[in-house]
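CORE FACILITY INTAKE
Project code: CF-77B
Contact: R.S. (postdoc)
Sample description: multi-component assembly, two entities in total
Requested service: structural model of the whole complex
Turnaround: standard
Below are the sequence entries exactly as provided by the requester. Do not edit them.
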Amino acid sequence: MTMGAIQNQPSRLDPASAVYDFTLPAGEPWMHEVKRGQIFRIVDIEGNQAVDTLFFSARDPAERYSAQDTIRRQGNIYLTAGSALMSNEGKVMLRIVADTCGRHDTLGGACAAESNTVRYALDKKYMHNCRDNFLTALARWGHRYGMTKRDIPANINFFMNVPVTGSGGLTFEDGVSAPGKYVEMRAEMDVIALISNCPQLNNPCNAYNPTPVRLLIWNPE
Amino acid sequence: MMKNLRGSSTPVDPPVSDAIDAPADWRRFAPELDESKVVFSERVHGGGHWSGVLKRGTALRLVDVDGGVNVAALFYNQEEKLERYNMADTLKAQHTAHLTRGFVCYSDMGRVLCSVVADTVGWHDPIGGVSSNEDVAAKYGEHRFQEHRNDMYRSGREGLLIELGKWGLGARDLVANVNFFSKVVADETGALRFEPGNSTAGDYVDLRFEMNTLVALSTAPHPLDPGPQYAPGRLQLIAWRADPPGVDDYCRNFRPENRRGFHNTEILFR
C-alpha cells in the first residue's frame, strides 16, 4: 500500500452491534477510554467537520500521541488506513483499520483563543475554540488521571486536509471529507481518547459551519 | 579530569579576567560582533545537549562547526514554563512547513518566543522530531560510556530530557521540536524525504529572543538522517545583546499574523 494516496477502505462493522454510540454536538469536548482491541469509529455526519483528537495511555497518561513520531515512522504526513498512531515513547497506540475519507491532518493542531488572535484578528479572542474544549475536558474528567495543560501536545485533525507543498508551504484545502465519511481505528493499548469537536468559525475548511460527529466503539470480535 | 591541555585539541580556558568565555571562538564565527555586546559563547559537543535562558532582547547564533549538524530545539517561557513552543501554531499561523529568515517561533499563547533574524541555510525542519534511544541503537548500534567515554551515542530525546530535567521539566513538557540545519520535504502524496547536505561548515542561523526564554538543545543526529555512521557535528553558540525589533522589523512585517504576534508579546512587557 502506498501511504498518502487518497484511498477508500470501508469497514464491515455494523453500528447496531456497537457497545457505545454517541453523537457529539459541534463545539463540545469528549473524553472516553478505549480498551485494547476495541474498535473506535468517528463519523463525519454532515461533512468537512474538524475533529481535534488526542490519545493518552490509560496506564500512564505521560505516554501520549506524538505527531512527529507518527509521521516519521510511516514516512508520511497524512493519516489513512494502515497508519499507526505512535506514542512519544515509540509505541503503537492505535492503528487505522478503515477510512472512507482517505486523508487526515497531523500538523495543523488545535485552534485556541490566543492563536486565533494571531491568525485572524485580535478581536476574535472571545470565540469558542478547541483548546478551551481540551481544558474543559481536563477539568471535568482529566483530573482523575492527573492531567493538565502540560499534557496537551499537537493533535490529529480528523477529516481535515492540510497539504504541505514541495517548497515547504502549508495550505488549508477544501476538505476531502463528505457527509457520512468515517475513520476507524483499533486500540493496541488501553487509551484515553480526548476530542474537541471543533467550533472554528473563521476557517473555510469547514465551510464556517461546525457540525456534529458520531462516535462508536465495538468490542473485539 | 586534570590533564595537560598543551597540545590538546580542547580549547584552553580563557583567563578568568575575560568578560566572556572563549573570545577566539566567537570572533571566528561572528567577527562583526562588538565585543561589549557579547553575552557568552560556548561550544556544544556533537551528540551533546545544552540549555540556558536567553533574555528578551538577546540574540543567539547557532553555527554549524563541522557541516551537517542537527540541532533539536525546544523553547519555553522562562517565567511560566507551561507556555511553550507550539509546532502547529507556528506552522499554521505562517502557512509554512519550514523555517528560515522572517519566520518566528510561536508559543501556544499567541506570542513570539524568538524570531529567525538571519539564516545562511534557508530551511530548518519543524516536523521531523527527535530520535529515541531505541532508534539510535537500531540504526548505529550501542556505544556506551563504559567503552567509549564521551564519544558514547546519545539520542535526541534523551539529551532533551536531561536538559529539561535541570529545570524541573520532563517528558510531559517535551513537545514537538524544531530541527535547525536539517531539511525534510513532503511530496504531493505526503511522503517525507530527508535532504542531506542542507547545511555546511560555517552556516549559521540567528535567533532573536522576544521573551525571556528557556532554550533546550540536542545535537544528536536528525532521526531521518540516512547516514550510516553516528557522526554528529559540533555546534557553536554565541549570544549577544541585540537591537530591539522596530516597527519596520523584517520578522514583524514578514506576515500580517506576525504583527499581531509581536503585539501580543509586547503587551506582556509593558
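Facility notes:
- Strands of chain A lie at 20-24, 29-34, 39-44, 51-57, 84-86, 92-99, 156-158, 181-187, 191-197, 213-218.
- Chain A has a mean pLDDT of 95.
Invoice: internal transfer
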